[in-house]
Amino acid sequence: MQMICLDLEGVLVPEIWIEFSKRTGIAELARTTRDEPDYDKLMRSRISLLSQHGLKLADIQEVITGMGPMAGAREFLDDLRSRYQVLILSDTFYEFAQPLMRQLAWPTLLCHKLEVDAAGFVTRHVLRQPDQKRHAVNALRGLNFQVIAAGDSYNDTGMLTAAHAGFFIHPPESITKQFPQFPVTRSYAELKTAIDDAAQRLAASA
């Protein structure tokens, strides 16, 4: 059996924090794991900025509601799900993801959660576990799945390494230079071909 594991933000949907940064004019909120590989450090900075500017979870959710998947993402995902089992592994939060999951026809998502106080301010991020994407892939391998993974950023490299086959999709050049072992795709068509080719190789070697 084969399982396709995909990142969410930057792969299927726009980066939520970048969109929120544009709406609020707070440039520091545009930083992502492409800029800061330490996810805990990045989230602590984001939560601090939200507090400084008096922004609540509802303010972020309002922006997310107006967002949609990337062009072609729904069709790409539908095609994969018709032929493989697909799991979305993301460092987003359940409190963010629901409107986007609805537009992607509710794929299975594993991510993190936020703690929010009575006034609606985000107080803390709660990780499912550190490096959860890599752990999820290892768990799937332990269940005898052949895992093919794709992502775009630093926080995806753990799952790409753990998978039987891993690919970047439209990553920044700085990351591809650091991780040249992962083939780079620049469109859903290229990624689909890469996944199908890897699936055939893995099936033949099983």
Provide structural commentary.
Helix 3 (57-65) packs parallel to helix 5 (94-103). The relative contact order is 0.17. By secondary structure, the protein is of the alpha/beta class. The protein has helices at residues 16-24, 39-52, 57-65, 73-83, 94-103, 132-142, 157-162, 173-178, 188-205; strands at residues 2-6, 85-93, 109-116, 122-126, 146-151, 165-169, 184-185. It has a seven-stranded mixed β-sheet with strand order 4-3-2-1-5-6-7, with helices on both faces.
Sequence-ordered SSE layout with sheet pairings:
Blueprint: E1 2-6, H1 16-24, H2 39-52, H3 57-65, H4 73-83, E2 85-93, H5 94-103, E3 109-116, E4 122-126, H6 132-142, E5 146-151, H7 157-162, E6 165-169, H8 173-178, E7 184-185, H9 188-205
Named CATH topology: Rossmann fold
CATH superfamily: HAD superfamily/HAD-like
As a percent range, the share of helical residues equals 40-55%
CATH architecture: 3-Layer(aba) Sandwich
β-strand percent reads 15-25%
Low-confidence segments:
none
The number of strands is: 7
pLDDT averaged over residues:
93
What is the total domain count? Answer: 1
What key phrases describe this protein's structure?
single chain; 206 residues; alpha/beta; Rossmann fold; 7 strands; globular
Short summary of the structure?
By secondary structure, this protein is of the alpha/beta class. The chain has 9 helices and 7 strands; from the N terminus they run E-H-H-H-H-E-H-E-E-H-E-H-E-H-E-H. The radius of gyration is 17 Å and the shape is globular.
